[in-house]
């Protein structure tokens, strides 16, 4: 299990402990006991409903041989310079190392009876093997269908039939103070249930750069190994994916955070249908207005925006939807599609449910006057088209790792050799059989999977181009730019 940590609010640190949740099929649980003022809340129905659908995930990353650069020793520098073959002056040399085998555990939630499971991206990222164990001890091997680092969600699949699932509730309907349970496998203690209340909604923790964050805050105990587990209401409905905790020690000390199902539903649907998340952008950079007001007050400047709640716009992409709506630096977004927006987390949660081509009504304050505009949202590439993850086939070629003799002859340590070229971008750019790809978009290409992942990332980026650097069998170095959209 991957762990994030980030200090926030003084001594507190955020430790991500990926969790999971989900279900593609909307179902309705049998009515559970409803909380009545002054009466205890019965959570046994929610626990009984949840436990069969929450699974244990074992992650294995096998030992590998990697070539790394290490500093040359003083003797390497001296004798290398003396005999004319070293780099000298603190140069570096190549060295092969054996990485240790890595194992970790997390949780997941079965979202369809035929074996689709939602978990966190960091539970499965980099895994060579994934083993899923059900509450009844049945074991399955799993494969990754798709991942979304921005929300820390992943979709995996096992070959099973008639598997137990957890119905999905509407996290928008959650109220602060409402009872919830967290279900998962903390510290290897399988099938664990903890209880608490919803402490807050729409929290931003800034745990990862460019992340989509609008967390449900809860005091239900969440610990390492809960990654991928479910946050469930008293009706036995999934309402969140347990994802992070506040801690000074790495263990639960009071608050946990869950990804709401409003975000999860869209991510899971896109991963299943397209293989990548269809993300729409407003084309603005900003943050909570309150933070901007406090910063201005601290510097003795005017902090009157005509409102105290909203999203302060600090930058506008001239080609984005925000610019089309007339947004400018210094404006404050107060409503989206008629829904009040009080902070950045609420805007992110609303935008996470949009796709390129969707219409969006934006209400904002411009020079203390209210303005409402309707715009069409775009993808990262500035169009309204569906973005699909490209495969290696898009290049029009076949590849194989460079053999030992070729490495020695050309003085290289890795690379992928083009062994066949068909009609496609490679042929159009003049890349022929025998060319060896060393780098693509500044990523060392040591295996076919390296090139596959780089092509995928490029195909969904703002600049869908693959910049290839390589070497010909003659030793001549060359580079090419190939469009992959």
Question: Could you characterize the architecture of this molecule?
Answer:
The protein has helices spanning 44-50, 74-83, 121-124, 261-274, 289-298, 321-324, 344-351, 404-410, 425-429, 448-459; strands at residues 4-7, 13-16, 54-61, 65-71, 92-98, 102-110, 116-119, 129-133, 139-148, 153-158, 179-184, 192-203, 215-218, 230-233, 238-247, 256-260, 284-288, 311-316, 332-336, 339-340, 359-366, 369-376, 397-401, 416-421, 436-440, 443-444, 465-471, 477-483. The radius of gyration is 26 Å and the shape is globular. The strands form five sheets. It has a six-stranded antiparallel barrel. Strand 21 (359-366) and strand 22 (369-376) form a beta hairpin. It starts with a strand and ends with a strand. The longest helix has 14 residues, at 261-274. Helix content is 17%, strand content 35%. It contains ten helices and 28 strands. It is of the alpha+beta class.
